[in-house]
Structures are given as C-alpha cells and as structure tokens.
Amino acid sequence: MEKIYDPKQVEDKIYKMWIDGGYFKGVIDPAKKPFTIVIPPPNVTGQLHLGHAFNNTLQDILIRVKRMQGYAALWVPGTDHAGIATQIKVEEALRKEGLTRYDLGREKFLERVWDWKHQYGNRIVEQLKKLGSSCDWSRERFTMDEGCSKAVREVFVSLYEKGLIYKGSRIINWCPTCATALSDAEVEHEETAGEIWHIKYPVKGSDEFLIVATTRPETMLGDSGVAVHPEDERYVHLIGKTAILPLMDREIPIIADEYVDREFGTGCVKMTPCHDPNDFEVGLRHDLEQILVLDEKAKVINGGKYNGMDRYDARAEILRDLESLGLIVKTEVHTRNVGACYRCGTTIEPITSPQWFVKVPELARDAIEVVKNGDIKFVPERFTKIYTHWMEIARDWCVSRQLWWGHQIPAWYCGECEHITVSREDPDQCEKCGSTDITRDEDVLDTWFSSALWPFSTLGWPEKTPDLEYFYPTDVLVTMYDIIFLWVARMIFSGVEHTGKAPFHTVFIHGKVMDDQGRKMSKSLDNGVDPLDIIETYGTDALRFNLVTGNSPGNDIRYVPERCEAMRNFANKLWNAARFVMMNLTIEENALPDVLELPDKWILSKLNSLIGEVCENIEKYELGIAAGKIYDFIWDSFCDWYIELAKPRLQGEDSANAQKVLLYVLTEVLTLLHPFMPFITEEIWQSLPHKGESLMIQTYPEVSETLNFPKEAADFESVMASIRVVRARRAEMNVPPSKRASLIIVTDKRNVFEAGTMYLSRLAYASEVTVTDTPPEDISGFVTVVTNDARIFMPLAELVDLAKERERVEKEIGKTTAEMERIQQKLTNEKFVSKAPENVVNAEREKLAKLQSLLDNLSESLDNLR
Length: 866
Hints:
By secondary structure, the protein is α/β, with parallel strands linked by helices. Helices cover 45% and strands 17% of the residues. It contains 29 helices and 29 strands. Strands 6-5-14-16 form a 4-stranded antiparallel beta sheet. A 4-stranded mixed beta sheet has the order 10-11-9-12, with helices on one face.
C-alpha cells in the first residue's frame, strides 16, 4: 500500500476493474430473489449537481448492499429527453446562426436535436460514473429509444380505447415564453404582492352598476357574463338582465350561480370562461360565450383597439381608459398565489385551448388503494398523506405540448369527415371514411408521460420480456419530495393500470441539498457547488460520505464544505490503520484464532452489535445513522482503541492471534463500509489477504451468534472507562504521557482489572498498577478519579512538581478572580443592566457562573497540593 491515499490514482482504475468484471450486471437467476431500482432519469441537458450526487449515492448504497446480500440486484440507468429544456437549448443554438426551427422545418430540426443529444446527452452519464454509481450500463435506456417509444404509443392508444384519453377544449396553463401547455404539476405557485381593481359594470336600461373586482383587468375584454348568488337579495332583481361590458360595449348576461360567495367582496363575479378555470365551469353550466383574448405569446386578440398589445401593456392602457371613464371605484393592495412555469419562471396564463387530456380521477382510485392497502409505502410515512390528498383532488392531466421534440401524438385528423384516428401503427387512411386526406397531430406528449412508464418500459413492456417477468415490479424508488406529483403519482397509476401491479413497494423520499446557511442553491445566490470539483479536491468517497452522514429520510440536508475535509481525514485514518495492519501481517489466511483475549472479545462484540444495527438501519432507510455508526466504530473503537491495545501484543508471543483479529475486524468493517465509500474500501481490500475478485461481490456482514461476548465486553468497558478518566484528569493537569505514575485501583471487580493490567499500564501511562478492595489510609496526597466500577488513586507527587503546580494554580486563581470582579462590576451597574440588550446581560451572567465553577475547581486543586 502507498504511504498516502490518493483518490486520483485509485478511482478510475477501480471503476474500470468493476466494469471489466461485469459486477454491475443484473443477471436473471431463479435461485435468487431479485432487487430492482430504476434511476430517476436525469435530463439529457443536465450536468451533475449535488442533488444528483445525493440521490444517486443513496441508490448506490442500497443496490450495493442488496447485491452483497445475495440478491439478483439490478440498477437500471437512463436519461430523459426533457422536451422543453432540450428544445430550448437547440433553439438557442439556432438563434446564434440567425435561424428558427421553422426555417429548418420539423424533420431537419429534429435531426439537429438528435445531433445535440448524441454530442452532449451522455455527459451526465459519465459524471454519474465518476460518482461510483454501480448501474448496469448494458441496460441503459433513453425515454425516446425504440422500446420506450413503443411503450408510450401503446399506453396512449390503450387509454384512448378505454376512454381515458380525450381531446377537448378546456382551460389549461399556458407558458407564453415556452409557447406550450403545462400540467398543473408543472406550475410553481408563489405568494406575490399586487393590486386588485374594483370596476363598475353598468346595468343596461338603468342607472345601476354592478361592481366586480379583478387582479387581471386585461382579461375583462373576454368577459361574457356577471354572476351573482341566486339568493343574494341585493341582486335578485337583476338576474336575467344584462350588463354593458366597459370598453367593449358588449351586452353580457347577469346570471345566478351558487359558485358565487355572496359574503366575499361585493358578491358579483365577472365571468371570463376562456381565462379562468372556475369561470370556465360556470360558463359551461350557463352556455356563456367563450372569447379568447390572449394568444400564444400573451398578446391581445379579439380585444378591439387593444389587439396586438402585450398583456401587461394592455393592462396599463385598460386601467387608464377605465379611470378616464370614472369606472374604477377603488384600487387595493392584494397578495395572491401566482403560477409560474417550472422551467422558465414566466407567469402562466390560464387559457382555453384544444388539448389532449388524461382522466386522472378515474386512474387515481386504484393508485390510492395500493397505498392505503400497504402495497406501496412511503418513507417517511408522512408523505403518504400528501400523496393521497393530491390524488384525491387531482384534475384531468393535460398531456399535449406544443413542441417538436418528444413523442409525437399518434392521432390523425381526417380532412373529409374530421374523424380522429388514433393508432398503434401509422395509418394511410381515415379509419372511418377511408379518405387518404389525413394529417398527424403536430403536438408531442408531456415529457412526464413517458417518464410515468419508466419502471416497466425500461424492462421491455409491452413485450413480455424475461427482464420484465423477473425484475418487475421494482423494489424501491429513491426520489426527492418535490416530484411526488409530477412523477411518483403518475408512475403509480400507470403501473397499476397497464401492468396490474404497483411499480415498486417503497418510495424512499429524501430532501434537498441546501448550502451551509440552509438556503436553496441557485445561480442568483452564487452558492452552487460542482460535485466534480469536490471529487477532484477530496475524492468521491469523501463527497459521498459527507452527503449521507447526518441525513434523515424526507429532510433537507446542509452541505458544509468543511465536512468534506473531515471525511477525507476519515479516509486517511482508515488508510493508515490498514497500512499498520498490513505492515504487521505475517499471516496469509483471514480467520479468527481459537483463543481470544479480553480486548478481542470486546472488539468482536462491538463489531457484531454494529453489524446488527447497521443492517437494521439500512432496512429502515436510515442510511445516515448507519454511516455515522460505522464512522464512530472505525475511528474510535478500532483505530483509537483496539489497534493501540494490539500494539504490545504484536511484539510478543501472542502476535499471530492479534494479527488474526486485526485482519478479521478490518476486513469486516471494510465490507460494511463498502456501499458508502466504495473506492477506498476496494483498494484496501485488494491489498489484504482475501478470496474472490472484488470486495463489491463479497457477502455483506451478518450478525454472528458465536461472536457475542456480552460479559467480557462489559468487563473490558470497565477497564476502558478507567483509562478514559485517568487520561482526562492527566490532561486537565497538563501531565505529558511520558510522565508515568503508579495507579491504585479500588474495586470489587478485582479479577476484571487484574486481567486489564497490561492495558492500563500502556494506555493510562501507569508505571505500576495495584488492584485492591481497600483505599489508601491517607488519601490527601493522591489525585482521585471515579468510574461506575472503580476508584483510582494517583500519587500527586509522581504527576507534578508540587511547588511549581501550586504557583501555577495560584496564578490561575488570581487571573480568574480579577475577571470575575470585572464582570461583577458590570452586573452591579444599573445603567448596563437596564440599557444593554437582554442577551448581552445574560451572556455576562453565564460567564460569571462559569468562572465561579472554575474558581471552585482551582481552589480544590490548591487544597490538594498543600
């Protein structure tokens, strides 16, 4: 082994060894139980960020553990075509050439997108490999590859045939920048301060007015009615009459509908069926005219003199005109939820548009049931309620997008009879009238439509492939809480509907990676971190261990850069421990000795307990807790204690037995740690005596009934407790390790401490150890420390120069007394106490209390020195 561990010299070499060995491949084996994870497919436009690193580290830990536990483990990798994001990237490149997609035409444009995908789309896959991801790369999929595309088409046609997909003109979310429809789940809402205007609508043939309120005055151009509650006495006499729409001079009916809340505002609501989902529903009930007044770029249409204006310019002009007519009653500050495009951040516009929709409420029933009956569980469980609530209120899902990059909708419109032919194969004529004048729908499907099929389309569905038969349903989905609705819910109802089975049994939810101040990482804050930079500086294992330690399911984590350095130090500690073991090895076989000493039984019992706890934590998806326990065992129990305990034995007749235990424990902890820190553990393991080709295909440690020594372990903990308190007291007194002193141990467990004499001598720096059940007659000249099982006496004169120590303590007492007097003066000053902030005053009081405690200890020490 090299003197210093250098990740740059190890990681690529080790990863190539794993790939060449075929260790990542999922192999169908009827004798084994399958364990399957499908990767949340990153966008082909993506670059590895800390969220990816965190998510894939969690998946890699799970798949490595299951592989080592003997499962036929399969981790399916792949990427998403990312419709909007990818098309935007390519259109940006075209603009630099002075071109648009329309200049190229659909076919040539798609060729450019595929070229871009081949050039850049594999970048994130290579970055995932740098992270150590043990995916079966031979099964890598793409949401627009031939197999996934076939699955998408089968699902669309199947849902259409069942009446679960339809085309209709309904209110949808429209992004004017991306120029496409968005599903409800793709809209991000934020509380935004704005204004609300109260406007007078004259009642025809009278001097009465109805006062309506709106936050979007530009939409009034499309008003086709005013609604009041049927039992509102203020307006009963006006129901059935008409109002005059200001600026447009259009008569619109005054209707009665129970949708109106008569206690809210004036009790009058303007109806704009093409630009508000609630108005749309009311409009259908009352057959109100649908007037679209904003086009795909959010410019005014059907709006008289305002035609061609941007929506916000039109708003300003409309308000000026209303003001000049005296029709604005008042303007108020108003905070409301504003929806924005999840991709570009543009405020979305609700508009009516002919689109394709999936009837989610009908699919949701079974998707709710598989969670309620326990076929699928969420970890943490609290996300079950969030999922169930959303599914219970889900509306129809708009799945058509006005893009060219994506799965083109398999629907053809007949120019003769207007029939829509939806087909698994491209038709050459209308299925109804036989006309060859048919045109394919230009829209593509929402990216999430294909992603919803990911757990089964990647395994060969709709064909009955061996992979599908063996590896489906998958086992665990690892994902962040922000895409439960966008992705998880849709996978569940798609899996249940098309395969008859829930697509996975567990949804393991994790949080976001925030910066060290708890803020979201963003370009605007300039607080983003490139995982590849961290890997370059500290190594992959340090990054992985930093991300996983301390995390708990469902909760956000803070990325603290300094912890990467701490984890690199941990890697170095492990490396140095392994080098020590290697340098002292003369044995060639890894097997425990027949005779075990007290420290051996202690470390083996600790290891056995650790294995049981870690395996339990992993089963509960408490990966952060498991990682923390392994860290503590390696750093404290193995390196700081057992190796030190073994050192004198390695120089004596017991050397072979000590070597065997050292090697056994080191090998077991390497195996236990491997899923978390795969590179350094593999590199060390390859240098140790071993059987097999790779650590990653060794058996994961299991609890042993024969390596449990509770009494011996407890006895040795008693000895260790004594060593700790002696060392702590010596440190308080600034006694160097080189200065040894005799110990008198008073205990009723004499046999335990007599067996530990050698370890007390070495680790408690004792020149002599006496174990007795009676204390010294005169204890005034001793320093005393106490544990649960013993009192330990150390002759003071052997530890310090009494005269010098008295002088030192007296100086400390003087210094402490002076500082206490200074603080007491402050606290007796009424001006300070009354004017200083409460936290400052409290801090001074805390300082005084601590100094008093210090003074008491110093005075006691001085008394002992006399």
